[in-house]
Amino acid sequence: MPHGREIFRGDAAELGRLHQSRWQWLEQAVGPAVALPTEYPDGYHVPQHHHSRSQLLHALVGVVLVTTRQGRWMVPPDHAMWIPAGIEHSVEMLGDVSMRSVYVMPDAIAGLPDGLRVVGITDLMHSLIVESEKLPQGAELEGRGGLIMGLLLHEIPNLPERPLGLPFPSDPKLAALCRRFVAAPSPHATIDEWADIVGMSRRSFTRAFHRQTGLSLSTWRQQACLFAALPRLADGEPITRVALDLGYDSVPAFITMFKRMLGASPRGYMRGARDAGEGMKRLSGPARPESATV
Fold first, then answer.
1. How far is the C-alpha of 235 from the C-alpha of 15, rounded, in Å?
2. Which residue among 139, 171, 225, 226 is the one 20 to 30 A from 289 at the CA level?
3. 225 contacts 233 by C-beta, under 8 angstroms
4. Structural domains present in the chain
5. Which segments carry the region annotation Disordered (predicted)?
6. How do the pLDDT tens digits run along the chain, 294 residues long?
7. Cα separation of 64 and 94, whole Å?
């Protein structure tokens, strides 16, 4: 059984064995939820895999990129990704990442989300995650431990959804356009341009794009720009450089888009994320070196 915080470092073969051991243990664990803290180095990549449990993947520190067949989702600090059971996904670390995952049985409670989504982590959920990782894992919990895990489960459906997903269309031509845009995002892409490239009328394009992604092109484009901006802002790059590199005519235009999508200016958002991360680190305490194995 995992003990304390897992630290994933070493060569590819060793890390692969460590992941396989962890996943096997998860499949055998009992109880409605299991909380596992993990430390990953910058650039670490977890290959495609899936669980029989749903996963609430919380980035305490650092930015995480989750990729599935349905699209890509970015998980910055103070957020989490809900990954339903059985969904194939890979995970990429953008910067050193302190991850806190809660693995939940699909039928643990009624009302759990049934789709992929990024959610904001509330102060209450912060505290519950911190406490849950200190509890014995993989067994039925009673008393205080059972109450903590029970409240954590019931808070999951109440977490606010955030627009940090980037679903891709199922149509290969539309998906190819989206991949090219992600490689070189710009706020100036228009519906008419994209419709012309794929040989569709404006009306047919807008209907097909919304049906296949659940988003308008304008909203999708803004979220793609956020994907490009957040890791650079997290690394401390100046807002002006990021905004101009993404093709915005002015910094205020970029800030307006950012505030509309995430509810705070870039500087305020990143400051809040850093403060939350430092606070969680202090609450969690130092990592235990013996926990580098499963």
1. 26
2. 139
3. no
4. 12-158 (2.60.120.280), 168-263 (1.10.10.60)
5. 274-294
6. 454 455 555 555 666 667 677 777 778 787 899 888 888 888 888 889 999 999 999 988 877 889 888 888 888 778 899 999 999 999 988 778 889 999 999 999 999 999 999 998 999 998 999 898 888 776 677 888 889 999 999 999 999 988 777 888 889 899 889 888 887 888 888 999 999 999 999 999 999 999 998 889 988 988 888 878 887 887 789 999 999 988 888 999 999 988 887 778 888 877 765 555 454 444 444 433 222 222
7. 6
Query: Per-residue DSSP letters for 192-233?
Result: HHHHHHTT--HHHHHHHHHHHHSS-HHHHHHHHHHHHHHHHH
Sign of CA dihedral 54, 59, 62, 65: positive
Q: Who's near 98: CB < 8 A, 6+ residues apart? A: 37, 38, 39, 59, 60, 61, 62, 277, 280, 281, 284
What is the number of alpha carbons within 13 Å of residue 171 lying toward its C-beta? 16
| Contact status, residue 120 vs residue 164, Cβ threshold 8 Å | no
* Tokens of residue 242, six digits: 């990021």
Which amino acid, 142?
Answer: E
The first and second tokens of residue 9, run together, are 């470092």
Could you identify the residue written with the tokens 């009624």?
110
